[in-house]
Amino acid sequence: MNDGKSKPSLGGGGSILDKIVLRKKEEIADAKALVSVQDLESSAHFNRTPYSFKEFLLAGDRTGIIAEFKRRSPSKGLINGVADVAEVTQAYNAAGASALSVLTDVDFFGGKTDDILAARAVNDIPILRKDFMIDEYQILEAKAWGADIILLIASILTPQQINDFGKFAKDLGLHVLLEVHNLEELERSICPNLDAIGVNNRNLGDFTVDIQTSFDLVNKIPNEFLKISESAISHPQTIKDLKAAGFNGFLIGENFMKTDDPGAAIQEFVAQI
Question: Could you write out the DSSP letters of every residue in 91-109?
């Protein structure tokens, strides 16, 4: 299995991403020492059939929003240190979110395994394990924790890894969201083992955001994949514009979490779409 060492160049601005990936390798080594693959495979959620990402994303009674539970980020620092994951994700679900995104990165985003387990226990819609996936072991973890979707980030993976990890996930019944930031990443990363392609409007080199990235790339994504716009979505009108351009889904990270009541924030937002 490719260990992720031979990844594409990130350019000069990739330092935070490089740090995250280096730390991730240590985390995975620690996790493997604590929890065996057999342990993961015998967990309560491992044999459940994941919810269909496509069905929920396109459902008429849902919004297409993938609502995120995120405590902190490298660019913003602490976003929300008090929100309860079960409470917030249930409110997202009730407001018509098509899926939930739950951060599990500890050091940079303040996430933890228990967050996905808590969200899974109280929700009957798809959950995305939002993390920096560089090893098949993490995909087994996602399945064991009750996730339905995994994220593959093109800028930290080779095309071969994207294909292999995608196949590994699909064989487990999981759905795969590929994240790209530009045309070059998109063109080299497309493979059959994906369900959705997300355009991240945030530059992971310097953390600036530009929604134009989505509009520039939407017609370059083959129509066989669900099309997702990620980050920089803070106005209901933006969702209308993105829908008109051809997007099916909208990942909203900080917009709800930065408020005192993320559940109320999403309700207000959805009412205006």
Answer: HHHHTT-SEEEEE--STTT
Collapsing DSSP to helix, strand or coil, 22 comes out as helix
Please state the CATH superfamily assignment of the domain spanning residues 15-271 in this structure. Answer: Aldolase class I (3.20.20.70)
209 secondary structure, DSSP code: B
- Alpha helix (H) residue ranges in 35-97: 37-41, 53-58, 85-94
**What SS3 state is found at 150?**
strand
Give pLDDT tens digits for 218-227.
999 999 999 9
Q: Where are the domains of the chain?
A: 15-271
Per DSSP, 154 falls in state G
Show the tokens assigned to 179: 């994240």
pTM of the model: 0.94
Q: String of b and e for 107-118 (b: at least 16 CB within 10 Å)?
A: ebbbbbbebbbb
Q: How many CA atoms lie within 13 A of 258 on its CB side?
A: 8
User: Which tokens sit at 14?
Assistant: 């990739």
